[in-house]
TrEMBL record:
Organism: Aspergillus violaceofuscus (strain CBS 115571)
Domain of life: Eukaryota
SUPFAM superfamilies: Winged helix' DNA-binding domain
Name of this protein: O-methyltransferase dimerisation domain-containing protein
Residues covered by region (Disordered): 1-20
GO MF annotation terms: protein dimerization activity
InterPro entries: COMT_dimerisation (IPR012967), SAM-dependent_MTases_sf (IPR029063), WH-like_DNA-bd_sf (IPR036388), WH_DNA-bd_sf (IPR036390)
Organism phylogeny: Eukaryota, Fungi, Dikarya, Ascomycota, Pezizomycotina
Coiled-coil region list: none
Ranges where the O-methyltransferase dimerisation domain occurs: 98-160
Residue ranges with Polar residues bias: 1-13
Amino acid sequence: MTGPNDGTVNGHNNGHIKKPTEEAFTDNNVAIAPNDPEEVPALLKRIALHGEAYLTENDELERTKILESARALVYALETPREANIRHCWSQGCSSLYAAIEIGVDLDLFTALSRDDKPKSAAELAMATGVSQVMLARVLKHLAAMGVIKETGPDEYRRTGFSISMQSPRYSDAYPCMTGCITAGVLALPAYFKATNYMLPNDGTKCAFQRGFDTNLHFFDFLKQHPQHASEFNNHMSAYHQGRPSWMDLGFYPVHTLV
């Protein structure tokens, strides 16, 4: 039995169009080789250099330089296949995000972070009132992603991140994204495809409206959903923390342009 003479099995391609680049890609070994191995030695030297300076001077700028170099090192060593899995499963708009939001909703991070003592999955299940089997799976993923620290079999300890998640100023970011951001972001590919990749110029005709099935502008949407508005406000407060304000002297010409 043969399919139709159009390059598909059953006449349908689920919206996927075969592109010339797909025909050109022939070496699958590229997907399982490091992205940029030539950069590794220089990045290691850079990390060591800034690390020494940070330990000596405790300079915030040096800390950010170490962080940037460390991330670049991960990207250089990571294979395309590993990056693909990270984007789609471990760290993208998927399992890690969901696990953190579940933890926020259950007050899991509060139960874990009251003190530095390790706590078992059974203790945390009792504190949150949910299934130990379910929670144990969430805890495993949170530990694998560095959100909390695994200290033994089904035993966990707080981190700086989990301590911060006790405060709505930081933890509200997760329900905020689910309630008023993420669906709009995920709608971007379909939105741009439908508009022939034109730059949007109307705040009521964007990917946001497509994602959340609304005709409202983003801020009008928040007016109708005060809980999300409060969460968004907390998230913006955390985003601004430690960063210069547009009103700071020399940052933006407020007096001449506003």
